[in-house]
C-alpha cells in the first residue's frame, strides 16, 4: 500500500491547480491543528511541567483528532466510508510523524539546548511537508479508500 502511494507522488498528475488548492486547505487545517497542538503542549510541558516528550505525545493525539476530521471533510474532501481502515492509516502516518518529531525535539532540546516551546515550534516547521505528503499519499489516497464499502470475495461452490 505504501509503495503504491509513494509511486503516486512521483507522477506529474498531482502538481496542478487542484493540488495547490488542496495544499492551501491543508495549511489552514494545519493552522487549526497547530493551535491545538501548541496550546496543549504549552499547558502540559510548561504549566503542568510534564516531560517534554510526554507533553508532545498528548498534544499530538489531541491535535491529530482535529487534523483528521478537518482534513477528511475539508482538505481532501474524502467521501470514503471505510472509516476504520482510514483511521488505521491515519494512526500509522501519525505514529511515523510523532516518532520523527520526537527525534527532532530530542536534537533541539537535549543536544542543542534550545527551549521546549521554541523547539516545538521549530519541529512543526520541519515536519509540515512530511506530514502533508504522507497523508496525501496514504491516509486520504483515493486508490486505497473509495466511496463504496469493500466487497466480500465471491464464494465458491463445490459440487
| Beta-strand segment tally | 0
Radius of gyration: 18 Å
Low-pLDDT residue intervals, each spanning 5 or more residues: 1-6
| Euclidean distance between termini CA atoms | 37 Å
What does this structure look like?
The chain is mainly alpha-helical and 159 residues long. It has one domain. The chain is built from five helices and no strands. Helix 2 (17-47) runs antiparallel to helix 3 (52-75) and helix 3 (52-75) runs antiparallel to helix 4. Residues 1-6 have low confidence and may be disordered.
Task: Label this structure with key terms.
mainly alpha; 5 helices; 159 residues; disordered N terminus
What's the structural blueprint in terms of helices and strands?
Layout: H1 2-10, H2 17-47, H3 52-75, H4 83-111, H5 116-139
Structure summarized in a few sentences:
The protein is mainly α.
Amino acid at each position: 500500500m505504501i509503495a503504491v502511494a509513494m509511486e503516486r507522488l512521483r507522477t506529474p498528475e498531482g502538481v496542478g491547480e487542484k493540488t495547490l488548492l488542496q495544499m492551501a486547505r491543508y495549511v489552514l487545517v494545519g493552522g487549526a491543528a497547530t493551535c491545538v497542538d501548541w496550546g496543549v503542549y504549552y499547558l502540559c510541558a510548561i504549566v503542568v511541567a510534564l516531560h517534554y516528550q510526554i507533553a508532545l505525545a498528548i498534544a499530538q493525539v489531541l491535535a491529530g483528532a482535529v487534523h483528521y476530521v478537518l482534513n477528511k471533510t475539508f482538505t481532501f474532501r474524502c467521501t470514503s466510508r471505510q472509516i476504520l481502515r482510514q483511521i488505521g492509516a491515519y494512526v500509522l502516518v501519525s505514529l511515523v510523524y510523532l516518532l520523527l518529531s520526537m527525534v527532532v525535539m530530542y536534537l533541539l532540546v537535549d543536544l542543542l539546548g534550545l527551549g521546549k516551546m521554541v523547539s516545538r515550534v521549530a519541529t512543526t516547521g520541519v515536519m509540515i511537508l512530511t506530514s502533508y505528503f504522507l497523508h496525501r499519499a496514504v491516509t486520504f489516497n483515493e486508490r486505497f479508500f473509495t466511496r463504496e464499502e469493500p466487497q466480500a470475495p465471491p464464494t465458491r461452490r463445490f459440487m
